[in-house]
Amino acid sequence: MRRYILTITCPDRVGIVAAVTGLIAGHGGSVLEAAQHGDLDTGRFFLRIEVVADSLPSGFGPDQLRAAFDPVAREFDMAWHLSDTDVPKRLILFASTEDHCVADILYRHRSGELDCDIPVVISNHEDLRGLVEWHGVHFRCVPTPSGDPVAKAKAFGEMGRVVEHERPDVIVLARYMQILPADFCASWPGRIINIHHSFLPSFAGARPYHQAYERGVKLIGATCHYVTAELDEGPIIEQDTRRIDHGDSVDELRRVGRDVERTVLARGLRWHLEDRVLLNGNRTVVFP
Amino acid sequence: MRRYILTITCPDRVGIVAAVTGLIAGHGGSVLEAAQHGDLDTGRFFLRIEVVADSLPSGFGPDQLRAAFDPVAREFDMAWHLSDTDVPKRLILFASTEDHCVADILYRHRSGELDCDIPVVISNHEDLRGLVEWHGVHFRCVPTPSGDPVAKAKAFGEMGRVVEHERPDVIVLARYMQILPADFCASWPGRIINIHHSFLPSFAGARPYHQAYERGVKLIGATCHYVTAELDEGPIIEQDTRRIDHGDSVDELRRVGRDVERTVLARGLRWHLEDRVLLNGNRTVVFP
Amino acid sequence: MRRYILTITCPDRVGIVAAVTGLIAGHGGSVLEAAQHGDLDTGRFFLRIEVVADSLPSGFGPDQLRAAFDPVAREFDMAWHLSDTDVPKRLILFASTEDHCVADILYRHRSGELDCDIPVVISNHEDLRGLVEWHGVHFRCVPTPSGDPVAKAKAFGEMGRVVEHERPDVIVLARYMQILPADFCASWPGRIINIHHSFLPSFAGARPYHQAYERGVKLIGATCHYVTAELDEGPIIEQDTRRIDHGDSVDELRRVGRDVERTVLARGLRWHLEDRVLLNGNRTVVFP
Amino acid sequence: MRRYILTITCPDRVGIVAAVTGLIAGHGGSVLEAAQHGDLDTGRFFLRIEVVADSLPSGFGPDQLRAAFDPVAREFDMAWHLSDTDVPKRLILFASTEDHCVADILYRHRSGELDCDIPVVISNHEDLRGLVEWHGVHFRCVPTPSGDPVAKAKAFGEMGRVVEHERPDVIVLARYMQILPADFCASWPGRIINIHHSFLPSFAGARPYHQAYERGVKLIGATCHYVTAELDEGPIIEQDTRRIDHGDSVDELRRVGRDVERTVLARGLRWHLEDRVLLNGNRTVVFP
Known about the structure:
Four copies of one chain form a homotetramer.
Chain A: E1 3-11, H1 16-26, E2 30-38, E3 44-52, H2 62-75, E4 79-84, E5 89-95, H3 100-110, E6 116-123, H4 129-134, E7 139-141, H5 149-166, E8 170-174, H6 182-187, E9 192-196, H7 208-215, E10 219-226, E11 236-243, H8 250-273, E12 277-280, E13 283-286
Parallel strand pairs in A: 5-6, 5-8, 6-7, 8-9
Antiparallel strand pairs in A: 1-3, 1-4, 2-3, 9-10, 10-11, 12-13
Helix pairs in contact in A: 3-8
């Protein structure tokens, strides 16, 4: 069922929902799903509404809805976005040598669980070419030679041009293991998603499973978050944990962790693709 | 913060939320929290809205809001209810000899986590009198002699009169272990909550931990549900499970189970007291 | 590291562990991992021991260990088995049209997480041929025409011959959706593993997600169990649950369920392949 | 059933289990439960065995078993301990004003779930006197005036004398909220248990729920650990997490957190009382 998904952020005040739903109802629009949140700390209001496209008059498409909505948005000082589910989101994967997250996303994409187009997977190694191409997705290898800052900068430049050209709605760092340049992060705010293999803020940085093993924690976790210039400090979208015990080696933490990583990433990514994640400073509002 | 909580069920159609929020906004009402659900199967719509009392004009209290809302409710054929958080809900506990659920509810009540009055705990045994009275709650023992149907019917008659007199918003069967007469259940639809010590529909009826042990399941659970005349078949409010293993005896299942029972009951009861649970046939809509 | 894995079941009595570990220590054997369980109900004792192969004298391989162990086994009336981790277990998959469990097992196999050989995947449809063959595994289609008992019996006969020829350590019904003939089940006791898409004993039989939706449960689950002639009644190896809510349609239960199914199956299968699951009547002892 | 619980830590080498179980079997001892762990990193071995007291010869009590065991212990350079379940462990609670952990432990103690004696609860405030005394436990108030180091040192001196006199097997900091002096911690290594209201190492130190709220995590947790001189850095016994969302205020995190805290503490404490927790450097081995 084709839907228009409207997401709104604005200062909280009386009458927002009445105005928005009044406008939609005024055009006969049927609301399939709606969720809202008023943040008492920041005074911001968040709203997500799914309108059934066919319930609107013939000829009243997304552009007409946007135009009709504009005065309301101005009145309430809204930052807003309208998606059309008939226009698939565009996803680019950045990968390295580990395949569990890439394989999982490609599987879910192929099975129809993740509704998006994947124009390209970019990796700094050739390892995953076969996997990616078997799924009918274009694979591009852009090596990022360690210890050679000039070559590395050039590589990120090349990746930046690919991204500029493809204009993705989201870039997923599927265990990419490289730190993106700050300006790269800044160019795509709220559009780059990373999966970190720990329950942040515990064990940020390198080798989180080793850190977890050393500390002797009884659960390990994974965190799906937006990437900002501050490493592992961006807004968290989703997290989960799994139980381990004293008998589990670092390798076994890795094995258990891979399952957490891919389910956490899959949930967070699906929510992003369905416009269910709104930014609230360095925190997120998630309407699952 | 004093709030009016409005819950609504009606046939789904265009304009419900616009009408309701329009009315509230028209009186300057500030919405603290709102959640909605349209059920595609039944065509029913469910809405829960918390309005900040102080945001409405002085002198415009719950009765005025009810009166103002009535025309909207008629227009949309709504079943609806308006609660005032300044009027505590009334809770009666039915208990027997096991104390873990009673102790937990009394603790949460005393600590302010469960916002309600508890006029009386009724039990068919004396065992819990000390615990209940230490919490400053009236304890009444109404024995239900097994094997004596006349005396038992008389006991339920006495309990019915107490309940009629107290007019509770909810009766909790806190491991009461007696089957209530069908007419008793019918008198308080959607107001009697039971905690069953299994993950329903598995292991309905007697001795669920024994049943679970015999079947060799790897998780046990608990279910909080509304009581209907059909034993263990009423609408489910909340459930949860915990992991067990081959080394756990029935007594150990009971120990683990007690923790699940009391947390599941506490969640379900709190949601009920906060008008977060709406009936949808034999299913529930829960806005947590 | 090469290991010999010894699993033992016998009547419980004094001195079993002393005898077994005494024998191993007497040959200089180093124990990497050991777990035991005495069942107070049945009086049965269960033991699993991993011996480091290289810690035994040169020339003292699995056959020598078996021969040395035989007198102890007789003395204590043991049913026992010795596996050599250098001899991979053999796994056959039975599949149909749904691919999530097959894809997950093939992925885990390829990534080294499941240590076994997969000589063939047998399916009653052609749908998964590409997926299976891309992983380098032989695919064989044996249709089981519904409504034609003679053709169906012939199909199971053909499958039985393949199985007899391959002599697998385990057959996994990866959402195979066909009921195996009773004599087929009887031929491979404790060797056929099914994944059922509910938390058994809830929602046995057909269309468990529909049943779960109708009943309005708040968690759904999956169950990995050995297949017996009684449908969905065999010994349970592993189960897990996931939270759902009133907004989830049957299709969304299926989506959430697929993740539970594949993780539950992966855990249960790995434990089976590592000889961590012992039968105790219709229950299992699992040493994870 | 009376049992002797033997816990052992020693350098790993061939023959430990054979020697220990051989000795027990040699006296006719029946083993109810046994668990072991060899740590490949440290080369340490850990063993816990429950022997049924009545299976040993009449007159062969814990002292005789200790004497018989001593040569084995010397041979393998063991640190070891033998508990007699007929001698209840002794538990002292340190509390402050928050009652949820204290109430939970007192409830579990009264219900028989925690097998121990509680000679005294020491608190720096009077608030919990009624609760503690209703449970028949001695309550002692030792104020720790903030901003007065001399008075505070005196208070800890007084508490130290009480502890010295009572010789507890374990001291539980049940949300005590005071930092114990380093020498106090050093006097009772592996005997002081704290419940920290975060998933350590995240949010160590003060106001963890505020920290969690600020960071925008999607799960909160609690950690039960042994206290060392390094704040929140001691060996972790048990942890768990619960899901929260963007709508939860700090107060709601506290409410959810209280449930995690008390279940995590209850599990960790029960394991300690049953000698199921062994120290392995700054990590723990837990045989649940």
